[in-house]
Amino acid sequence: MMSYDPENIFARILRGEIPCRKIYEDDFALAFHDIHPQAPIHVLVIPKGPYVSLTDFCGEAPAELIAGYFRAVGIVANELGLNDEGFRALFNVGAHGGQEVPHLHVHLLGGKRLGPMLTKS
Ligand code: 5GP
């Protein structure tokens, strides 16, 4: 597994060095709008900790952070009204998953019917 790069863009957003359109923040997580939205609502939720990916987070993070992070994901989905009509929660992991930013994040996508889970290409 690759080691955590503290200069990745989401680490810099967490430190306040780069602005974001913040939606929600608590002790465990920060949620903000994706800079290149791929749906009418496209939000990212990141944990407050140095975790590269979902597997890194699940294996290494303290239980309190894991619980707090996933609780925050649910709060954000509710606050944005995504639960009303449904939405997609997506983790990209590593090269085959197409992960570009090496700080764990879930994509919350919604606001329209999203179609098939994978594009046919
Ligand atoms: P990944 O491919 O790693 O799962 O997704 C990374 C996401 O981060 C992409 O959807 C991309 O648009 C978003 N992103 C990259 N840089 C920035 C940034 O500086 N600010 C925000 N808000 N989103 C970003």
How much helicity do the residues have? 25-40%
The geometry reads as globular
Q: Into which percentage range does the β-strand content fall?
A: 15-25%
Over the alpha carbons, how many angstroms does the gyration radius reach? 14 Å
Number of helices: 5
Describe this structure in words.
- The chain is of the alpha+beta class and 121 residues long.
- The chain has five helices and five strands; from the N terminus they run αβββαααβαβ.
- 23% of the residues are buried.
- The chain binds guanosine-5'-monophosphate.
- Guanosine-5'-monophosphate binds next to β2.
- Guanosine-5'-monophosphate (5GP) binds next to β2.
Summarize the structure.
By secondary structure, the protein is α+β, with helices and mostly antiparallel strands.
Keywords for this entry:
single chain, 121 residues, alpha+beta, five-stranded antiparallel sheet, binds guanosine-5'-monophosphate
